[in-house]
Write a structure and sequence with these properties.
Order of helices and strands: HEEEHHHEHEHHEHEHEEEHHHEEHEEEH
Structural class: alpha/beta
Strand order of the largest sheet: 4-10-9-8-7-5-6
CATH topology of the largest domain: Aspartate Aminotransferase, domain 2
CATH architecture of the largest domain: 3-Layer(aba) Sandwich
Number of strands: 15
Number of domains: 2
Shape: globular
Radius of gyration: 21 Å
Number of helices: 14
């Protein structure tokens, strides 16, 4: 079927929970996608920061094919070798001692919320259950993570929200301190806000956050669902700020495109979860963890982090030079290949025009173009993207 036939069928059978573009991808390789009509696209969205190794990376594909022929799924009542290997990889390259596996970023954040509450309840009593998060944050679409998210557009229509969340301005340590109450058990923040418009905090912000948490015996949770796994040029984004959390969540790019989430924690905190306190049928099954082991090893072994840092600096510079030519340009900000270009005008039409010209982009907070290409993107592909974007901006 061609693209229009697929779209017509989707309109008939699929719930309309997404504002979809008229694109039907059927094949991907590296930083390129092809649609059902054979048209090629340069992908600077990467499945929303999921395809960090590009589409169909050979090591991830080989791991999936091999594992699919051996064992796709079994119960978490049993020990799963690839899950154990992945947990060891993540813990040995982070602050964490233990891992819990699930299927998505929202589930990882849900697990973090539950762990923080249970740990605090056992250590300090039942009155400590509140979690402070940031305005403009995004933590997921479950009821708990919608309640944790600091965006009204995500929360509306779903009242009553889950009790026990307080929202304060991001990058404002004083506001955070004022938001702490005797009921607070944890602070949950994204090291860089993605859906919030690619907002990078000031250099000392997270050191102050850590000090506040330590002073009040609060857990610090970092939501690295979007910014982790090399996106910023380091394996985890919080490494840029010299601060260590107590709990961290990952998902998106962890398995090279396969659906997975994980929550990592240090031993004392992790011990609050015992048998029966939390679980997931599909979480960490053999297929997805085999893919994740391949993806993580590729990031660590093939110079991906250095490349993301170098090409990110190049992309940021090219965007700044481009933006300065136009009166509606505000600023470019980001770290590594997590970059936002803020405009003084809505950016939705730019995304649509990019699609028409074979370029896939994304907009956050209405006026911020978000650039999250695969970490393997080349300078030539950056130059191609800049050429297309320049033509679009010139028409404005």
């Amino acid at each position: 079927m061609n693209s229009q036939q697929w779209i017509a069928k989707a309109d008939k059978y699929i719930m309309k929970t997404y504002g979809r573009y008229p694109l039907v991808p059927v094949r991907g390789e590296g930083c390129r996608l092809w649609d059902a009509d054979g048209r090629e696209y340069l992908d600077f969205l990467a499945g929303v920061a999921v395809n960090n190794l590009g589409h169909c990376h050979p090591r991830v594909v080989a791991a999936l094919q091999k594992q699919a022929g051996e064992l796709i799924h079994c119960s978490n009542y049993y020990h799963i070798p690839s899950q154990i290997e992945l947990a060891e990889l993540l813990c040995s390259h982070s602050f964490a001692d233990r891992a819990f596996f699930c299927n998505s970023g929202a589930e990882a954040n849900e697990a973090a919320i539950k762990l923080a509450r249970k740990y605090s309840r056992e250590k300090f009593g039942a009155d400590r259950y509140e979690i402070v998060t940031a305005l403009a944050s995004f933590h997921g679409r479950t009821m708990a993570t919608v309640s944790a998210t600091g965006q009204e557009k995500v929360q509306k229509f779903f009242d009553p929200l889950l009790h026990g969340f307080r929202h304060v301005p991001f990058n404002d340590a004083e506001a955070l301190h004022k938001g702490i109450t005797p009921n607070t058990c944890a602070v949950m923040l994204e090291p860089i806000q993605g859906e919030g418009g690619v907002v990078v905090p000031s250099a000392g912000y997270f050191r102050e956050v850590r000090e506040i948490c330590d002073a009040h015996n609060l857990l610090l949770i970092f939501d690295e669902v979007q910014v982790g796994m090399g996106r910023t040029g380091k394996l985890f984004a919080h490494e840029h700020f010299g601060v260590v959390p107590d709990i961290m969540t990952l998902a998106k790019a962890l398995a090279g495109g396969a659906p997975i989430g994980t929550m990592l924690a240090r031993e004392e905190v992790a011990s609050a979860f015992g048998p029966g306190t939390h679980g997931s049928t599909f979480g960490g099954n053999p297929l997805v963890t085999a893919a994740a082991v391949a993806a993580v090893r590729t990031i660590l072994e093939e110079g991906i982090l250095n490349h993301a840092e170098e090409i990110g600096e190049y992309l940021l510079g090219e965007l700044e030079s481009l933006g300065e030519k136009f009166p509606f340009f505000v600023e470019v900000r980001g770290i590594g290949l997590m970059i936002g270009m803020e405009l003084s005008v809505p950016a939705g039409d730019i995304v649509k025009k990019g699609l028409e010209r074979g370029l896939l982009l994304n907009v956050a907070q209405d006026r911020v173009l978000r650039f999250v290409p695969p970490l393997i993107v080349t300078k030539a592909e950056v130059d191609q993207m800049i050429g297309i974007l320049s033509g679009i901006l010139a028409e404005m």
